[in-house]
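TEACHING EXERCISE
Course module: macromolecular assemblies
Task: Read the component lines below, then compare them to the predicted structure of the full complex.
Student: A.B.
Group: 4
Components provided:
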Amino acid sequence: MTISLSGFSHHTCPVELRERLSFPEERLPAALLKLKQELHEGGAVILSTCNRVEVYTRDDTTPELLHGLVREFLTSWHGLEPEAFVGHIYEHYNRDAVAHLFRVASSLDSMVVGEDQILGQVHDAYLLAHAEGATDKILNSLFQRAFKVAKEVRTKTNINVGKVSVSSVAVDLAASIFGDLADKTVLVIGSGEMGELTLKSLVDRGVGQVLVANRTLANAENIAARYAGEPLALADLKNFLHRADIIITSTAAKEPILLASDFQQALRKRENAPMFVIDIAVPRDVDPKVIDLDNVYCYDMDDLESVAAQNVEARRAEMAKCLELVESQVDRFLGWRQSLYAEPTIVSMTQEWNAIRERELVKTLQSIPDLTEKQRAEVEYLTKRIVNNILQRPMSQIKREVVRDDAGRVLHLVKRLFGLEESAG
Amino acid sequence: MLTALVYTTFILGNVLLVAGAAVALSYLWMNSNSSWLNVAYRFAGAALITLLLAFVLRTFQWKLVPFTTAADSLCLFTTLGLAVLMVQLALFSNHRALLCFYLPSLALIGVLSVLAAHPTLSEPPRPLSGSLLIAHVGLVFLAFALFFLAGLNSVAYAFQAHRLKLRKTTGLFQRLPSLDALDKNLFQLIRAGYPTYVVTLVVGGFWVWYEGHQLSPTWYLSPKIIMAIAMLIFYAFTFHARAAGSLRGPKLAYIVCYGTGALIGFYLVLALAGTLNYNFYGATG
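Instructor-supplied answer key:
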């Protein structure tokens, strides 16, 4: 009963090879069908994203054979030479394969640790394989457990706290200052790509009003039209600065266009309500003295990058806690899987004891022919209860022992003890 | 029997408060998830109910409002502080990280009240002369609780604003409410505390008018009256300056934070030196 993984990810494989190995969504059902045919009786799930291609398989064979089979499948499906995989493929089985899937689903193996997208992608990959009938009991349980682990990692640790891209950091900081952005006004000065990206993130987050100022009014009108905003001429900047709670500035000006005195004036008009300035222009559009003003929080590109780096670091610091959670869940899953080895023996044991029970019951009932139908039924029920009660403890003990000890040895002992057929289990 | 019940509820309430504070501090130090805050919130709620029960039982036992002993005063302060806190957090559930600032301070006062509890809780509280004085003392504690929470809120604001200026925005910064929310909280607490305090002083003035024959002729020069006037001036200034928008943000937070600290400090020094009531009561009082 082997669970295996063969994969390529951004850690091991260049994008050129990942592109060639990826499975377009519409071709995945056919790929799963072909892979399923190659397997003896197990199942397969293919996870194909821009950062990784991973094939999870389960079959009653050795890990070496399963890995070889997946390699052959990948080379034939994509028309590649086996040498193309050298140094890029990683292959794990059983414990390592399970742990890897749990780490992937929990976004601990992602390029941006803690990102949200991967869980959805693993979920979709599993649902497709399940819908195509390519999964079996073990794989179903494995992936369900992976989703639980991912949820636990997110809720019990801070792995996804704090954004790691510059525009998201800016939006997060705005939320840290203003809370709800619905009644806030954002002013965009200039028409840089980064500025617009940040504006878009703020609009997506529900910012109330958009003002756009540009040296060329036509450009301002153009951007304002896209975000249902109000275009303004840059020459009037000082007259409407006080209206803005959040200011994104990214002009190509050589000198600062916003001075500390401009903000002091704006703050007076705003009754000292805080202002958040995102200065992503190089050279900077905002006079560095503004940093010292109360109620003005000014972040330039370096500041935003440093916050993003802090968040990445904070996520890394959470890794140990996450991996601990993953490892404990791997143990639980493997324990459950190991207990499955005992199933045939337990079935055989139950059958054997019930056969004895039925044999003895027939003899007993024949020796007491005067019993009514109700009394016969009661005697039969009694025998069933006795057998069930006797078997209950050994059955649960066997399940526990096969997890703790060498399963083959335990089961062999049980078979000898209860006189079961060696073929059972 | 009733005395034992009073002791039990009094101590249990404070134990629950300390437990809540410990859980809130664990959240702060151990970088835990928000479920810890929910646990701390439940502890605070249970502590409030238990302390209220202790207050009711003690009132019922002696048919007197228990305001006067050190244990009673501290317990009343803690209970009112907790009540305001629970109302605040019930209205804004996403502000629960503030428990890290509020609960340990209230728990400290709770511990002091437990230390002062024996043997005063087995004795009747000193009776207050007339309903005006009872209203005055009750309102004083409510205003003090509101100002105390405002002080703690200002610590949170100053912390957040400082971290933002330093560009250190991980850890607790990410778990505390936004600056805007803290600013609104702070203003609401002062807006509730200041009029309460004005009413308190007016009620106290009426009490002096009607029943002040037991006071000394120069009672208004007593340290506690001077303190009361200093507090009135301080909170009148912060309230009106914030309402007008001329004082807001980190400056207001630092002023409230240091002002509250200074007032508590002076109050404690006068109380410990036994001079709080100096020159207040006359020969008959």
